[in-house]
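Ticket #4471: structure output looks truncated?

Reporter: J.K.
Steps to reproduce: submitted the chain below (588 residues) through the standard prediction queue, then opened the result file.
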Amino acid sequence: MSNTPRDPIGFEVFKNMLLSIADEMALTILRTSYSGILKDNMDYSTAFADAEGRTVAQGLTLPAHLASFPDALAATLERYSNRMRPGDVYCLNDPFEGGMHLPDVFILKPIFYEGERIAFATTICHQTDMGGRVAGSNASDSTEIFQEGLRIPPVKMYDAGEPNETLFRLLEKNVRLPVRVLGDMRAQLAACHIAEESFLRLLAKHGTARVKAYMEEILDYTERMTRAAVCQLPDGEWSFTDWIDDDGIDFGRPIPLNVTLRKKGDHLVVDWTGSSPQVKGAINNTLSYTKAATYTCMKSVLPPDIPCNAGFYRAIDVIAPPGTIANAVPPAACAARGLTGFRMVDTCFGALAQMLPDRIVAASEGGNTGVSIGGYYPDRTPFIFVEFFCTAWGGRPWADGLDGNANLFTNMSLPSAEMTEIEQPLEILCCELIQDAGGPGRYRGGMSVRRDYRLLEEEAVLQVRADRRIFRPYGLYGGKPGRPSRNVLNPASEHRELTSKVTMTIQRDDVFRHEQPGAGGWGDPLQRDPAWVLRDVRNELVSFASARDDYGIVLDPSTWTIDEGATTRLRDQLRLARGWSEIPSVTR
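Returned output as attached by the reporter:
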C-alpha cells in the first residue's frame, strides 16, 4: 500500500483525531493545574508535533503561542537530536534558546513506537513565578535577562523515565512557590502522558507508515489551503506605524513599531524592519512572539477552517532584524514582552486595514494588562497574585466592538473576584465597564473594564504592565480613538496617578485601580444610528454628554426619546465644524 493517503474520509478522521488529542491535553491542564493563571486565566497552550518538530495540531488555547513550539523543539532537537530515547522528557524557558520569556515553561515529550521517534507531545504554561528580583518574574523595569529569574536551556527533565533530581532541586530552591510551580508542571506532564497514550493507540491501529504519511499530508493540506486563501487577497505593499508609550525605563520616549506587508500571488512577506532597536525595559520580543502576533492577524482575515500548524507558516515569511524590539538578542530583558506582542497585532491590523478596509477592526484596548502582587504572610510564607486581563475589541466595519471581551491574541478568561479573594490576600472592590471608554464611531469601540484591588496583608510589591496612556487605540475611517489607560493608587483618598508601568511597594488597605484603555471606533460617529446611541445611553455605556458632543444626538432624559429635528440640526453643525473628509484612514 502506498504511504500517500488516498482515502479522504480516513484522512479527515485522522486529522480531527490529532486535533482532539491536542484539545484533550489542554483540558487536562485546565483540570489538574494549581495556579489561577492556568485554571482561571488559561495562559497556556498545547500542541502535537511530528518527529522533526513541525507542529501538526495545536490545541484551542492561546493564539499568542502560535509560533512558540517550532522554536522550542528546534532548540531541543539541535542539542539532543539522536540522543533522545523512550521515557525522556525535556523542558526549557530560555528566550534565547527556544523560549519566549522566563515564566513560559515548555515541557516536551518525544513519543517512540517500536524504537522509532514518531512525534512530540508539547505544552507551554505560564508559571506563577520563576524567581528573579520581583515576584511573578515579569517586571517591566528589569533591564537584563539575568534579573528576571531562573533561565533554563533545553535540558532533560526525565531521562529514560527517571527524574532529573538536580533540575527539580534547582527549581525548588529558585522559585517562591515551589508547590504551585511543580504542581503546574505535573499538569503539563500529565497532558503529555495522555497525548502519548492516545497517539500510541493510533499507531497500533494504523501503523507507522500510514500515520507518518497522514501527518505529512496534514501539513501539505494546510499549506495548500493557506496559499489558495492568500491568492484571494489583493497584491501590493502596505505599511503602518504604531507607538508604545515608553519602556518603563526611559519615560516619555515613544517606541515605534513599524510593519510592511508585501503580497504577491500565494505568498506574503510581513516585514518589521523600521521598528525600534531593542530597549532597556523588559518589553523586548523574541522572534517567535513576533511571528505569533503576525500569524494571528493573518489567521483573522483568512478562512477559519485552515488548521493551525506548520503548513500555515510556509506561505508567510516574517522578517524581524536581530537587535530590534521585534527580535531581541542577549542580554535583553523580555519578561513583559506581552505588551509589545499585543501592540504588534494592532500595528499589523493598521496595515491590513489598507489592504482590506471592509474587513479589519479598529485598534483594540492595546492588549492585556498584567498585574502582579507579591509578598509574605506573617509566618514568612509567600503569596503571589498574577493576573492578565483584556477587555475590548475595536469597532468593526459591520458592528460595534465587543465590550469586556478577551483580546483576540490571547483568548484568556478573567478570573472571578470570588476565586481571587479565596486564594489571595486581596479584595476586589469593583470590576465594571467604563462609561465612554470606547472610541465613538459609526460602529463604536468596545467598552473596557475598571478593576480595583485592595491589599489585606501588611505589605506587598505591586507590578503593573500596561500602555496606551499616551498613544490611544486608533480609530479607523473616521472613528475616534479610545479612552487612554489609567493607574491610580487609592482613588477614594489620595488619588495618586501612576505611570503605565509600575513596580512599587504598597501597604495594607492600599487600593490599586487600573482602567484599561477603550478600543477605537470605526467610521464617522455622525453616521451612527441614533437608536443605537439611545440604547447605549440607557445601558450607561455612553453618557448624555458624549451622545451630544460625539454623535450629535439630542436626547430628552425625562422621556428617553430622540429629538429628531434638533439632532438633524446639531449633526449638520458638527459636520461643518469638523470639516471631515469622506473617509479619513486612521484617527489618533
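Triage note (M.O.): checked the attachment and the full C-alpha cell line is present. Residues 361-521 form one domain.
Status: closed, working as intended.
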